[in-house]
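FW: tagging you since you asked about this chain on Friday. Here's the raw sequence from the shared folder, copied in full. Didn't touch anything.
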Amino acid sequence: MPKMKTKRAAAKRFKLTGTGKLKRNKAYKRHILTKKSPKTKRNLRKSTLVDESNVKNMKTILPYM
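HL: got it, structure written out here
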């Protein structure tokens, strides 16, 4: 069986934590920032974990992570 290919777009966007969970950055921080409050923008800076419902799909996209 040949090697599985990693989806490079996903590999650039997700990292693995020490416990094996997937870490991602939050969306909505690129433009139209004037109407967003400073608190909202500050919270968007923090990274978060991928939801459990999406982990199975992410494991197929990123087989060697």
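FW: The radius of gyration is 15 Å.
HL: agreed, and Strands lie at 15-16, 22-24, 48-49.
FW: great, closing this out.
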